[in-house]
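Async update (no meeting this week)

Hi team, since we skipped the sync, here's where things stand on the single-chain job. The sequence we agreed to prioritize is pasted below, unchanged from the tracker. I ran it this morning and attached the output directly underneath so nobody has to dig for it. Comments welcome in thread, and please keep replies under the output.
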Amino acid sequence: MPPALYDSFIADYYDEAPLVRQRTQDVAFYRDAAREFGDPVLELGCGTGRIAMALAQMGKRVTGLDLSERMLEHAARKRAALNKEERERVHLVQGDMTQFDLGEKFQLILIPFRSFQHLLEVRDQMACLEQVRKHLRPAGRLILDVFQTDAERIHDPVHMRESPLVEYRTHQGKQVRISERVAAFHRAEQRNDSEMIYTIEHPDGRKERLVFAWPLRYFFRYEVEHLLSRCGFRVGAEYGDFDKTPIRDDSPEMIFVAEPSG
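Output:
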């Protein structure tokens, strides 16, 4: 299994960052989807279990798969804090979303919060969707979320300057400032080399600067539609945000609800 991108300091700061902690609309959206389409649910790229635990708390059986051992350790601690019935509904698996075999079929499969955008090559994207197809029940649904690409952010040098995002204090008393920048544009490959910079001041006054660097694939609406069709899916609904508004020019998200085409 290849090394996981999130097996780094980012796993320890992930949940407390306001960028994640204040992201609640998607949780409500996926809870509604689980009510509508049913369980069992498979979440690919489950991370620390932010969505998986919410689904378990509403009575749904959920399997969370992630490549990162450190992120899954945080998810396991969250599961341990649930009551006995809720804990029994959550199954955590370390695995690669492009090559997994869980020996089970699911009613609902989620690929939320940009996880799919870590798959840089078309062959990996198709491998993931083919595994989803194999693990999905005939009347099941796939929900895939990527951000809508902002054209400026794929070429404008202004985005190569470090810009502040948020500042917060952790429960351990650390003062954290997060900024971001694009380190390199790769327009021909439809990806950016991105960086999130964590400037941390510890309670004892010690300071450190940590950089989380990763390549991020960007997608366009009809590209995703064609990719899904190529892998045996029919798109039933598309949304530009978690309030189910249509995809418009200024929509932050592209959310695809798809079902097996035959």
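Quick observations from my side:
Residues 31 and 55 are 6 Å apart (CA to CA).
Helices lie at 10-13, 18-21, 25-37, 50-57, 69-80, 84-89, 122-135, 221-230.
Reply here if anything looks off.
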